[in-house]
Design a protein that fits this description.
InterPro entries: AB_hydrolase_fold, FrsA_esterase, PET_hydrolase/cutinase-like, TAT_signal. About 30% of the residues lie in helices and about 20% in strands. The protein has 8 helices and 9 strands.
Length: about 300
């Protein structure tokens, strides 16, 4: 049986309430701290330079997962911080796209893990699997990570997220819909025949490519974003002139926003608000939208 979890919005309320109480207590004792830190903060105060570096502040290791030793997905690769001094970490499962293997977007594994996450990049049961199947496989991979994997003791099972490219991005939407206890979803150039996600409650960052001719932003990313309720924290980043395959090449806008989103909503780390609201701008960005409630 899955352990009960506190929904993301409720957890953020509790963290904010705790911070308020700490401020009151601090004022009574003469403390000058402006805000109590989230208990899930991991790593130094963020900067653009840190987020754009090839690796974050945590050293990482990796291990392969054979498809013969798991059920519900096709194995993959786990990346994890080697340090245990910070306690447990949140975890992220990531799916590749249609006809692709994990190697097509594998740069994301160590990049995200080095900011303080356990990441599993999955191989799908079949490279032809559709988004709904990929969503189920992402959830199976998270269950494996938290219940059976050799790194399960490093993971806080209440702080989990999903991501994916193309049909894997569509799968991450499916997973977030099916398991609202997830803390974040990051679909990249997502493809899905379902256009309405009005039931989605998981904080979701969608990243699309302006010149995507396979999952065009006008038919996929933007309708997906618009259909997510305003009460659900959400953002949409569109990369200037980017094709459908932008996640298959190392790029800083994708990594910067994905890490910031995961840190903010999986780790409840408000130090990353600055990267989300008002959000990124510049020549690499053709559009950015978000609801900006955050606190």
């Amino acid at each position: 049986m899955q352990s009960p979890t506190i929904p993301a919005r409720s957890r953020r309320f509790l963290v904010t309430a705790a911070a308020t109480l700490a401020l009151i207590a601090g004022s009574l004792t003469g403390a000058t701290s402006a805000q109590a830190a989230s208990p899930y903060e991991r790593g130094p105060a963020p900067t653009t330079a840190i987020l754009d570096a090839g690796r974050g502040p945590f050293a990482t290791a990796q291990q392969s997962v054979s498809r013969l030793g798991v059920s519900g997905f096709g194995g993959g690769v786990i990346y994890y911080p080697t340090s245990t001094a910070e306690g447990t970490f949140g975890a992220v499962a990531i799916s590749p796209g249609y006809t692709a293997s994990w190697s097509s977007i594998s740069w994301l594994g160590p990049r995200i893990a080095s900011h303080g996450f356990v990441v599993i990049g999955i191989e799908t049961n079949s490279t032809l699997d559709q988004p709904a199947s990929r969503g189920n496989q992402l959830l199976a991979a998270l269950d494996y990570l938290t219940r059976s994997s050799s790194v399960r003791s490093r993971i806080d099972a209440s702080r989990l997220a999903v991501a994916g490219h193309s049909m894997g991005g569509g799968g991450s939407l499916e997973a977030a819909k099916d398991r609202p206890s997830l803390q974040a979803a990051v679909p990249l150039a997502p493809w899905n025949l379902t256009k309405s996600w009005s039931g989605l409650r998981v904080p979701t960052l969608i990243i699309g490519g302006e010149s995507d001719s396979i999952a065009s932003v006008s038919a996929h990313s933007i309708p997906f974003y618009n259909s997510i309720p305003a009460a659900t924290e959400k953002a949409y980043l569109e990369l200037n002139n980017a094709s459908h395959f932008f996640p298959q090449t190392t790029n800083n806008p994708t990594a910067r926003q994905a890490v910031a989103w995961l840190k903010r909503f999986v780790d409840d780390d408000t130090r990353y608000d600055q990267f989300i609201c008002p959000g990124p701008s510049g020549l690499a960005i053709s559009d950015y939208r978000n609801t900006c409630p955050l606190s």
